[in-house]
Every structure is written in C-alpha cells, then in structure tokens.
Design a protein that fits this description.
The protein has 9 helices and 18 strands. By secondary structure, the protein is of the alpha+beta class. Strand 1 and strand 2 form a beta hairpin. It is globular, with a radius of gyration of 25 Å.
C-alpha cells in the first residue's frame, strides 16, 4: 500500500491538481516511493484481488495454448520429475499482478565512479531513482573490485544516464570504458559431489550435495537454467531445496571463465544429505561450491550477443553497406525492396557494432538509417574467445 498525496495534470510547466483522472489522460501522481515503471496501480484491495484473478486466468489460458502448440509440433517432452525453473519473464502469482514491460537483457556495461567518496551515497541514490524510472538500466556491485557496474542497452543509453546524473543530481560521475556483456555456457556433462563439514560457534554443520550438469543449447531463453530433482521435493524438505536452488543460481551469476553469467545449462540434483542442525546457509554454500567445481571441468565457452540489424539505404550505396557488414562479421539474412530503398536484414556480433550508427552515416553521407536489438547468444570460435579472454584478463 502506498499513499497518494496529490493527483495532478501537467500543462507544460504548470500543474493543476485534480480529484480524478479518466481513461486515456496522462496524470502526475505524487507520494509514490516503491512503485516503478511498468507497475499497475489499483485503487483498493478488492480491485487488486480482481486483477490477480484476471492475471491467473490469462496465464492459465496461455499455458494451455502453449501445451497445445507443443503437442501439435511434436516438441512437447514430459519429464516425470519435479522442476524448479529460473527464467527471465517467469510470472509469480504474487508479483507482478498484471503484465509489465518486456525489458530486454542489457548488452553493454561499464564502470561508474563518483568524483569523491563523500558523493558515493548521493550517486547510489541517483542510480536507484533512475532504475525506478528505467527498467532497462541495471546496476550491480563487483564483489572482487568493489566497483559499481552500470548495465544498459547501448552507448547512447549509458551516455544519457551519465548526463542525467550530472545535470539532474549535480554529480560529476565518470564512466569507464564500454564493454560487451558476454555469457558463459558449458559443453560437457559433469557429475560432482561436494561435502561441507564445518563447526561454527560450537555448532556442527555437515552437508553433502551430489549434482550433475549438462548443456542445454539453443533454448532461445535468456539466462536459461533449469534445476531438476531425482526425487519428490517432500523427501528433501522445501526449505533445503530452496537453499540449494539459491546456491546454484548464485553460482550461475558468475561463470568460471571470466566471470560472466552462465546460461543454457540443466542442473540435476541426484542426492542430498544433511546432519541435524545444519543451517540453510551452509547448504546453499555447499551447493554453490559444488556447481562451481563441476563447471570448471565442463568445457566452459563464451557466448557473444548477436544483434538483429535492419539497415535502410538506397540502391547506389547498397554495395558499400554490404561490404562494411562483411568486415564486421555480419551474416546477411535478406535484402528487401521498399519503394526506392533497400532494406538489409542481418545478424551481427555486438562487439563489432561499436559506433556503427556514426560509421553508417559517414559511409552513406547521412542517407541510411539502422536499428538493432538483441537477437540471441551465439558460441564464439576458439580464436575469438581467446582474444576476448586475454583482453578482459589483461594477459
């Protein structure tokens, strides 16, 4: 529950306070402290319950429709075991009630630093406010270096965020070099067992976790990680299963190669034993260490973000545009005719698209336009991976 202090309609720089707003109008609500962009605001608890029921019904219909499609295509595989899935876009009946914004994964990241230690708290507050307004902006703290990492959708996006911090919050923050957000995956199946036996504060903790990981490529699901159980959840205990799930998903946020998130992997829990009195935190730590050890032996490879690119240009400059795409390791999917223009549709590695909008304007004398968005992640060749690893590690 959030109190609404004032309701107003904006007329340029003037604000007029009103008691209600009808459908289709744009209003300004003052007093919200926890709401973020994409949230649905309702006026009462009864309206909230109605919205919840409508959302559950909609999700159930979508689930039945998806199952029907999978059965018709012959792709539906039923597994006789419990699963705990961690996917982007998965809906919990308790959070969000209605469909929010479809926010794509950030593909660029850079460091951001306050001009002085005294302004670090102000910078953290500014970033928190900006994330409420812009769900595509993500901020995390690098545990190894202690630096604040800014993640966004592109060069211009992060530049605008930096300008807003300077102009609206008066903080002369400095951005580090822009880097591509890669992913890591495994190429081999590995089974690993880990035992954690510690005595802390006079209390004995003992836990053994036996799990197996296997690659699950080409799922088309960002951040795809599936945790499966050999036995029903009741035989392990829901609290301990949640602790194991937390541990393995935590380990997936930082891969063993150069620390990027791990995706396209199935994790199966074969066995799990604990001594009486063992805490959930110790279980989570054991599961995390077991997964990290397994991934070290599973042939980890880098995945690079591939962008769907559309370029609109004239026929005279088409040859130059295609030649430039070839040099950037782009794969042309189609060339279409639209009136007097040509539309090039291609997939290109994001790492080769740094500053492409400026380069395209120069190449075509400002006559061409382009748009790109994340398409999928693709495994890199051994030579390209070696270059990226050497660059990231400074070797």
């Amino acid at each position: 529950m959030e109190p609404v202090t004032r309701l107003m309609i904006a007329y340029a720089d003037d604000f007029k306070e009103v008691q209600s707003v009808s459908a289709g109008n744009i209003a300004v609500i003052m007093g919200l402290k926890q709401s973020v962009t994409g949230d649905t605001i309702v006026g009462s608890k009864s309206a909230l319950e109605v919205a919840k029921r409508a959302r559950r019904k909609h999700m159930k219909e979508e689930h039945l429709l998806d199952n029907t499609k999978k059965t018709k295509d012959g792709k539906h595989k039923q597994r006789h075991r419990n699963k705990h899935k961690h996917k982007q876009g998965e809906v919990d009946s308790d959070v969000p009630v209605l469909a929010g914004l479809d926010v794509p994964e950030p593909v660029f990241f850079c460091t951001i630093e306050a001009p002085s230690i005294s302004q670090q708290k102000a910078l953290d507050n500014a970033l928190a406010c900006l994330m409420r307004e812009d769900p595509s902006l993500q901020v995390r703290l690098d545990e190894d270096t202690g630096q604040t990492i800014l993640q966004g959708m592109g060069e211009l996006h992060l530049d605008i965020i930096c300008d807003r911090i300077k102009n609206e919050y008066g903080i002369d923050a400095e951005l580090g070099p822009l880097q591509v957000s890669y992913r890591e995956t495994i190429t081999q199946s590995v089974r690993e067992t880990m035992t954690l036996d510690r005595t802390i504060g006079g209390k004995h903790h003992h836990v053994t976790v036996d799990l197996e990981i296997e690659p699950s490529p080409d799922t088309g699901i960002p951040e795809h990680v599936v945790v499966s159980l050999d036995q029903p959840e009741q035989s392990y205990g829901s609290e301990m299963i949640e602790a194991i799930q937390t541990g393995v998903l935590s380990a997936c946020t930082q891969g063993p190669l150069i620390g990027f998130p791990v995706m396209d992997m199935d994790i199966q829990l074969h066995n799990f034993t604990t001594a009486p009195g063992t805490s959930a935190a110790m279980v989570s730590a054991c599961a995390s260490q077991c997964l990290q050890k397994a991934m070290m032996s599973a042939g980890v490879r880098l995945l690079q973000p591939m962008m769907h690119l559309e370029i609109t240009t004239d026929a005279e400059r088409l040859h130059s545009v295609l030649g430039d795409l070839s040099r950037r390791r782009g794969h042309v999917q189609d060339v279409q005719n639209r009136l007097d223009s040509r539309v090039v549709i291609a997939n290109t590695p994001l790492a080769a698209m740094m500053g492409y909008a400026t380069a395209l304007r120069t190449l075509t004398s400002g006559t061409a336009m382009c748009s790109l968005h994340l398409s999928h992640y693709e495994m890199m060749s051994a030579d390209e991976q070696k270059k990226v690893v050497n660059k990231m590690t400074g070797l």
